[in-house]
Amino acid sequence: MRQGLRLEPLLQAISDFLDDQKDMIEQVRCDLTRGLKKAETGRSGLTPQQILRSLVLMRIKNWDYRELRERIADGCTLRQFTDFYCLPVPRHDAFHRGFTRLTPATLKAINDLVVQAAVALELEDGQKLRVDTTVVQTDIHHPTDNTLLWDVVRVVTRLVGRLAKAMERRRIKGFCDRTRAARRRMLAIQRMTTTQRHHQQRGKYRELIGIAEEVIESARTALRQTRKARGKDIITDLAIAETRKEIEHFCDLGARVIDQSRRRVLNGEQVPTAEKIYSIFEPHTDLIKRGKVRTPIEFGHKVFLAESARGLITQYEVLDGNPIDEQHVVVSLERHKQTFGDVPKLYGSDRGFFSEKNVTSCKQQGVKVVCIPQRGGSKAPEREAYEKSREFKDGQRFRAGIEGRISVLFRGRGMKRCLAEGRERFELWVAAAVLANNLMKIAALLTDRSVRRRRAA
User: Fold this and answer.
1) Which is the most buried residue in 37, 39, 181, 268, by most CB within 10 A?
2) Three-state SS for 32?
3) Do β-strands 417-418 and 286-288 pair in parallel, antiparallel, or remain unpaired?
């Protein structure tokens, strides 16, 4: 501080804001001590302040774990922001373990506290609300039947080899490595021309499915043979048990992949979307079709967002499947009323949220300007005149701002593609991006307010 080193104004404003929010720190503390019998004993880990501030910094700067650790360890101002000061900064995996101790419910509660604090500071009055849905991708490759079958063969084979190594064996009796044969069939299918697919595809798929079935059956036989296997110490026993659990998990997923490949390719059946699996690594992935020209099909989860006039994301939700947008209107109004005490004066969305029931419900609850364009069909003269009115056009211009907010979340906060594993961590990833956005907006609003007050004085 004597050398004149200062936090950048935005991070300083966020730090000052977090200093006053003791409830958020308590929420994080409850997650860190969850499941511990004696939380006050043992080696000291990351504090709740360090966990929350490091998570916010990571999403604001869009860094990965390694870069986050290096930047904090190398920067005096970032040590100050993350509450490390002169303390040693742990390895990157310590940050990962700390972040994954948090639950989606905790981050949602923290986001609610942030919005409530903004209302208490009179930074947001909730007079306007704009909503939209977007898709956050999961970290998977484009799924095809042949690549999914190849994933099953190589992963199960690798895990069985790991099990044999843990048991100090060269190989498990009865299990044969078929990865080379599976890879050849997979590449042969991918290199086929359109004409070749009509005549040769089924034969190659039949061979690849047969190899996958053989590998899964051999892996299950190996599990039965090693049911009573023990290692030389307790750590090896835990490793064997964990590997056996993983093999069983991927065998179950592999059986689903084989079933859908046989039904779709060999039997020519149209498999329902709800019954399909798009990745054995992220089995919770949904297929989303939104009618976009550039991205007709997306793999991930649909996310609902509601934003206020000042840029605060007051509501967010990770959805299951591909539900229609119009079902969120009434629910979002109820949540807005719980947060701000009243419905917004202006409610803006795109035409995907339109229905006569939604428009009527908004008017009945007291929304003065219902800015939802009609979707399809011929418009009544009154409706056409209303959509050409000045207030409706201004409302649509306001609604377009949420597209920019989604773009900022994607490009600046890392929400375009979730690199974390599992459905729970997917929700954590989205919640952390929303939290970083809200803290940055509050910091900017507080800074702007103080500048205006100094000028007025």
Assistant:
1) 181
2) helix
3) unpaired
Eight-class DSSP state of 167: T
Query: Given this model, what pLDDT does residue 174 score?
Result: 85
Of 129, 113, 132, 133, residue with least CA distance to 365: 129
Provide the total of helices (H) and of strands (E) in the chain, helices listed first: 17, 7
The residue with tokens 């709800």 is: 274
| Amino acid, res. 62 | N
Which of 210, 287, 223 is closest to 251 using CA atoms?
223
At residue 167's C-alpha, the angle toward residues 163 and 168, to 5°, is 115
Q: Are 316 and 115 in contact (CB under 8 A)?
A: no
Q: How far apart are CA 426 and CA 429, in angstroms?
A: 5
The beta-strand segments (E) located in 280-388 are: 286-288, 298-308, 313-318, 346-348, 369-371
Closest by CA to 375, choosing from 385, 365, 364, 387, is 387
Q: How many CB atoms lie within 10 A of CB 365?
A: 16
Q: Are strands 128-138 and 286-288 parallel, antiparallel or unpaired?
A: unpaired
Confidence of residue 1 (pLDDT cuts 50, 70, 90): low
User: How many CB atoms neighbour CB 144 within 10 A?
Assistant: 14
pLDDT of residue 3 exceeding 80, the answer is no
Per residue in 269-311, pLDDT (tens digit) is 999 988 999 999 999 999 999 888 888 999 999 999 999 999 9
Crossing angle (nearest 10°) for helices 179-190 and 145-166: 160
Q: How far apart are the first and last CA of the chain?
A: 28
C-alpha to C-alpha distance for 90 and 292, rounded to whole angstroms: 44
Find where tokens 């929304």 sit.
367
Is residue 457 packed enough to be buried (19+ CB in 10 Å), middle (13-18) or exposed (0-12)? exposed
Q: Based on C-alpha coordinates, what's the Rg of the chain?
A: 27
How many Å apart are CA 289 and CA 299, to the nearest integer? 9
Q: What is the pLDDT of residues 117-131, one digit of tens each?
A: 999 999 999 999 999
